[in-house]
Amino acid sequence: MKILSAEGLAKRYGDKMILSNVSFDIEQGEVISVIGPSGTGKSTLLRGLNFLDPPTEGSVYFKGGKLSKRNIDEARRKMVMVFQSFGLFANMDVLRNIVIGQTDLLKKSVPEAENRARELLKTVGLSEQARHFPHQLSGGQKQRVAIARCLAMDPDIILFDEPTSALDPTMVGEVTAVIRNLAKSGMTMLIVTHEMDFAKNISNRVFYMDEGGIYESGTAEEIFGDPQKPKTRAFIFKIKTFEFSVKSRDFDFIAMLNGIDDFCFRYAVDDEKANRLRLIAEELALNIVTPQFGECELRISFPESRDAYYVSVTYPGEDRDAIETGDNLSAALVKNAAKRIARVHDAEKGVNTFDIEV
Ligand SMILES: Nc1ncnc2c1ncn2[C@@H]1O[C@H](COP(=O)(O)OP(=O)(O)OP(=O)(O)O)[C@@H](O)[C@H]1O
Ligand SMILES: [Mg+2]
User: Fold this and answer.
1) Is 42 in the pocket of ligand 1 (CB under 6 A)?
2) How far apart are CA 175 and CA 313, in angstroms?
3) 89 CB less than 6 Å from ligand 1?
4) Separation of CA 23 and ligand 1 centre (Å)
5) 42: CA distance to ligand 1 center in Å?
6) Integer Cα distance of 49 and 312 in angstroms
7) At 305, is the pLDDT very low, low, confident or very high (cuts 50, 70, 90)?
8) pLDDT tens digits, one per residue of 67-82
9) To 5 degrees, how large is the angle CA 56–CA 62–CA 63?
């Protein structure tokens, strides 16, 4: 059964388009992690789904019903949200924090609500703290109370916006453990997180957000093990890059070489590798590709998770090997310095790309 669906969601602030054309279905029991660089609209998406900040276009369906300002209050009881900043009522003790929604919104009797609250405190490991006030709790404990308070509504889905990012590293584990248990119990969850191991272990699906939407989605194995698109790959493998655009034959090659030196310095590339990177980039961009094609895009990348560096050079035109048709001495130098040279021609875009491992 579909719990939550988005159809063509878009969000604009002023003339800035933050999200466009976001669509997905979340089935009951799914645990979906939302990951991606800062500022790519992850929080905006969550706030759009429960109308805290309504989308500018598109529709949200909760259990088949289209959400609107009119029915959102009712839907929010069953589509609850956990924030980075716990949001507990400071003037109420822990028990009361969990009871209040049940009595006021679900119209339960106080004893019934208290029983349920005590049950939930047990599941989040805080039975002893029932009579404590929020200021007497650690961050991890506060977040567990916040989760218990959400669970008291018997939600159909929980939306988490970085539930652990305000916590001391020592407390992350106690909160992720609670969420992991919820996943085991079949709770449907959409979780924005920067904790990659957590996302990898807990989710059946992952949304990678970039370029104003869900840029790539797949199973946790697909996204973390074999991401298909360049930005996903760069994010997952923590790839550091240096990019330089050559627009004409008399480009500023000193700026390019300085950029490469900075990159090598910043990532402590050893001297021997740095020399080869510099030589390959210089020969290709300055002496091989640009003289023949008048322009190119240079990219040097270094995935933190692997001990390898890559130089890629993209240039326009037909399927043509610039190294073979270029200056002989330069070509020999590049071949000598590279571990592996591959070239692909993308007929659709009309570009060739050398992919060189150093
Ligand atoms: N109320 C607002 N008014 C104008 N711009 C906003 C508003 N809220 C967010 N933005 C902009 O929307 C973009 C996306 O922000 P959002 O907070 O959704 O990113 P995020 O993916 O959650 O980032 P992070 O990982 O840092 O939490 C940012 O460029 C942000 O500056
Ligand atoms: Mg955010």
Assistant:
1) yes
2) 45
3) no
4) 19
5) 8
6) 40
7) low
8) 999 999 999 999 999 9
9) 155
CA of residue 142 relative to chain centroid, distance: 25
The highest-level CATH class for domain 238-357 is alpha beta
Boundaries of every domain in the chain = 2-235, 238-357
> Three-class SS of residue 107?
coil
Judged against a pLDDT cut of 90, whether residue 230 lies above it is answered with no
Q: Is residue 39 lining ligand 1, measured as CB closer than 6 Å?
A: yes
Distance between CA 20 and CA 12 in Å, rounded? 8
Write the pLDDT tens digit of every residue in 77-122. 999 999 999 999 999 999 999 999 999 999 999 999 999 999 999 9
225 Cβ contact list (under 8 Å, min separation 6)? none
Close Cβ partners of 151 (under 8 Å, ≥ 6 residues apart): 120, 123, 158, 182
CATH of 2-235, one of 1.20.1070.10, 3.40.30.10, 3.40.50.300, 3.40.50.980: 3.40.50.300
